[in-house]
Amino acid sequence: MKLVNILDVVKIANRSVDKFSGVKRYIATGDLSENIISSYTELTYDNRPSRANVAVKTGQVIFARMQGTKKVLLIDNDNVDFIYSTGFCVFEPSKAIMSDYLRLILNSDLFQKQKDKYSKGATQKAINNAGLKKIQIPLPPLETQKKIVEVLDKAQELIDARKEQIRLMDELIQSIFYEMFGDPVTNPKGWQVCKMSSLGLFKNGMNFSSSDSGVTLNCLGVGDFKSLYKIAQTELLPTISLKQIPSEDYMLRNKDIVFVRSNGNKALIGRSVIIYPNNNEVTFSGFCIRLRVESDLVHEEFLIQLLRSDSLKNKLLRNGRGANIFNLNQKMLSDVDIVLPPKELQMKFIKIIEKIENQKSYMELSLAEHEMSFQSIMKASF
After folding, report:
1. Which of 30, 115, 159, 237 would staple 218 via disulfide (CB 3.0–4.6 Å)?
2. To which H or E segment does residue 367 belong?
C-alpha cells in the first residue's frame, strides 16, 4: 500500500470563532474521553478564554496536538456548533480520503507514534504544522478505505455493545444499593453517620520524574480509572521507573480506595476505585488520594458503591456556594458524611452483588477479547 504525506490529502483548517449571541458549549482536550465528548463548559462570546477559539465544519476531523495524548473526534451534526480548544488541530479531508478513514488513521499507532516523535516544546511537547509535514500514512483507493471503515466500525460496535452491558450491570448494582440503603446524602432511613476521616487514613500519591531509573513498578494513574470501580489485574497497569522502592505508605494494599484528586478533565475529579494488588507491588500517582479503611464499622466494598452514588458525587464536587470544584484534597474528603448501616446489612448487599460481579467478569473478558481483535485489525489495516 502506498504511503503519502498526510498534508497531501488533508488541509489544516484554521477558522476562528465568529461572534455569537447567547451561550455555546466549549470542548477542551480534556473533555474528550475515549474519543467521546464526556463534558463541556458553557461560555458566552465575551467570557470565553483565548484558547476557546476553534470553529469547525461537518466532515472535518480534530485531534489533540499534545504528545502522548490520543484524542480524536469526527465532526458531525451533533457537535459541529461547539467551540473547540486551540489544543486541537483540525483536518479537512480532500476527495482522496474519507472522513471516517481519516478518523481511524488518526487513532492508529502508526499516526500517534509519528505525532509523538515529531512533537516539540520545552515543557509540554506538541506537534506543530512543521512536524505534521513529516507524517506519512497509507492511502488505499476509496473503495478499500470504505471496506476498512466497515470492518473496524463493526468491530467497534461489538466493543460498544459489551461496554453497554457492563454499564447496565453497574447501574443494577447502584439500583440495589439505593433500594437497600436509600440516598446516602439525604439518608431517609436514618442510618448512623460519620465523617470519612474517622474511617481510615488518607495519603496523597507520589510524584516522580520520567528520568528516574532503577526500580520498575506498576502505577495507578488517573488514566486507569475510566469507568471502573474495581481494579484487580494490577499487573496490567502502566509501569514507572524509580530510583528506589517507595516507602510502605506509597504502596497499595488490597481494598485500598483511591480517588482522582486533580486532572485536566474535570469529569474525572472525584472518581474512585477499589484496588486489589494481591502480591503485586503497586504505587499510585500524585494526582490521586488513597483511603485505607481501618474502621470495623464499614466494609470497603460497600463504601466504594456508596462513593459511586450520583448524589454523593454531586455533593462532593460542588462547594458550599454551589459552584463546581476542579481539585479535591484530603480535607474535602475527610469532611464527607458517610452513612453506616449495620455491618450485617452491608455484608448482605455484598453477597448479592457478587453474583452480578461474576456475570460482569465474563463480560469484561469478552470485552478484552473484542478490543484485542480490534487492535489486530487496526495493525493489519495500517
Report:
1. 237
2. helix 343-381
Question: Residue 323's pLDDT is what?
Answer: 45
Are residues 66 and 104 part of one domain?
Answer: yes
Please name the residues in contact with 139: beta carbons below 8 A apart, sequence gap of 6 or more.
Answer: 1, 2, 3, 4, 9, 96, 97
Enter the pTM of the model.
0.71
3-state secondary structure of 135: coil
d(CA 24, CA 26): 6
Residue 362: alpha-carbon gap to chain centroid: 22
Report d(CA 255, CA 257) in Å as an integer.
6
**What range does the domain containing 17 cover?**
3-122
How many CB atoms are located within 10 Å of the residue 150 CB?
11
45 with 145, same domain: the answer is no
C-alpha to C-alpha distance for 262 and 243, rounded to whole angstroms: 25
How many independent structural domains does the chain possess? 3
- Of residues 378, 370, 372, the one with CA closest to residue 166: 370
pLDDT, one tens digit per residue, over 175-197 is 999 999 999 999 999 999 999 99
**With contact defined as beta carbons under 8 Å apart, do 255 and 262 qualify?**
no
